[in-house]
């Protein structure tokens, strides 16, 4: 009788990457504490543990905030990254690697990853109509557009996601949109955009969620299944930004990879930096844990798994550990709105 193959005593623990366009607040680092408990627990049980995270440093918010402060995006993210690193040291968070998305190894991993996904036919170049500010003379990335959420009516909504109802948005969906830099009502203008063909993975994702459902909290399941109910649309994966990882798709070299599409790959690049990628991302391990706030659930249960499926030969996330939003004086924590208890 053949012996059952023994799974190596390895566990991967990942904490969501704080977006450092501003000093992070307590809500951004609660996943650090959840993940640190898991990492320490498995070390006590003599498991080999990789515990990773990092600072999410690219995107429109960095450009916007740096412009307001009269500094470069690099100066902004370096300052806020140092604040998080000091917090980790002061609180003894036991990361094996706390990195950043501006790290050269991360940039190379993302570039190689998306070249491979493009070559497999899962990226499509489309003509797209995007908000354009005639006053600022530029296309407006999602976070440069503010307005009212079409689903819950939140009138302080930015163009990528509503902080109140958690829905991921397109800036064109906002009611009464305004350029967040000058207040002008944006016009629309055509450009070319790379799209990830998320819709092709609907059946695979439904099978994946059904398998993982017993391991997930009810809110994780509910958030994820709501996406299925609303339909999986292909997702834009490039942006008209300079501050980001250059796009490797033919004809789109002047654009950057959309921040959501490259930051999630940091869970992979941080492990690769330690020469442990094969052991923890390609080979079978006992568990992988992903600790995050509930607004990040669909990125980890739908978009990230679909990207890994598109690439092939990489493990998909296992257990998602989500915390609720945190409030202060009756308002939800938000770096964008300046509500929170800050790390500094």
3D architecture notes:
The longest helix is centred in the first third of the chain and has 19 residues. The model has no long low-confidence stretch (mean pLDDT 92). Helix 2 crosses helix 3 and helix 4 packs across helix 8. This protein folds into 2 domains: 209 residues, Rossmann fold (3-Layer(aba) Sandwich), CATH 3.40.50.620; 67 residues, Beta Complex (Methionyl-trna Synthetase, domain 2), CATH 2.170.220.10. It is globular. It is built from 10 helices and 16 strands. It is α/β, with parallel strands linked by helices. It has a 5-stranded parallel β-sheet with strand order 3-2-1-13-14, sandwiched between helices. A 4-stranded antiparallel β-sheet has the order 5-4-9-10. Strands 7-6-8 form a 3-stranded antiparallel β-sheet, with no helix packed on it.
CATH topology of the largest domain: Rossmann fold
What is the CATH class name of the largest domain? Alpha Beta
Report the biggest beta sheet as strand number plus sense, adding barrel if it closes.
Answer: 5 strands, parallel
Beta-strand proportion = 15-25%
Overall pLDDT score: 92
Q: Write out the strand line-up for the largest beta sheet, numbering strands in chain order.
A: 3-2-1-13-14
**End-to-end Cα distance:** 60 Å
| Count of β-strands | 16
Unreliable spans are none
How would you classify the helix and strand content by structural class? Answer: alpha/beta
CATH superfamily grouping of the largest domain? HUPs
Task: State the gist of this model.
This protein has 344 residues and is an alpha/beta fold.
């Amino acid at each position: 009788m053949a012996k059952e193959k023994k799974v190596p005593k390895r566990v991967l623990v990942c904490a969501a990457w704080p977006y450092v366009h501003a000093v992070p607040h307590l809500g951004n680092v609660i996943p650090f504490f959840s993940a640190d408990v898991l990492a320490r627990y498995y070390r006590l049980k003599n498991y080999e543990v990789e515990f990773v995270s990092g600072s999410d440093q690219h995107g429109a918010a960095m450009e916007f905030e740096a412009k307001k402060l009269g500094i470069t995006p690099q100066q902004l993210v370096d300052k806020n990254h140092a604040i998080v690193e000091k917090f980790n040291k002061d609180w003894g968070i036991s990361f094996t690697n706390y990195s950043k998305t501006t790290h050269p190894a991360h940039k190379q991993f993302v570039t190689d990853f998306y070249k491979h996904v493009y070559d497999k036919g899962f990226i499509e170049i489309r003509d797209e109509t995007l908000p354009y500010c005639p006053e600022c003379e530029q296309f407006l990335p999602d976070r440069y557009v503010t307005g009212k959420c079409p689903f819950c009516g939140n009138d302080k909504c930015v163009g990528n996601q509503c902080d109140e109802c958690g829905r991921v948005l397109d800036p064109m969906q906002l009611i009464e949109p305004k350029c967040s830099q000058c207040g002008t009502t944006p016009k629309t203008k055509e450009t070319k955009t790379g799209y990830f063909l998320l819709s092709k993975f609907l059946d695979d994702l439904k099978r994946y969620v059904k398998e993982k459902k017993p391991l997930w909290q009810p809110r994780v399941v509910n958030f994820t299944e709501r996406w299925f109910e609303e339909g999986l649309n292909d997702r834009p994966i490039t942006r008209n930004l300079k501050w980001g990882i250059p796009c490797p798709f033919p004809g789109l070299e002047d654009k950057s990879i959309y921040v959501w599409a490259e930051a999630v790959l940091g869970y992979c690049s941080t492990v690769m930096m330690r020469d442990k990628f094969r052991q923890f991302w390609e080979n079978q391990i006992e568990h992988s844990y992903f600790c995050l706030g509930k607004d990040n659930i669909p990125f980890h249960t739908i978009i990230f798994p679909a990207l890994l499926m598109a690439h092939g030969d990489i493990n998909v996330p296992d257990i998602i550990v989500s915390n609720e939003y945190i409030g202060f004086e009756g308002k939800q924590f938000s770096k964008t709105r300046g509500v929170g208890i800050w790390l500094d």
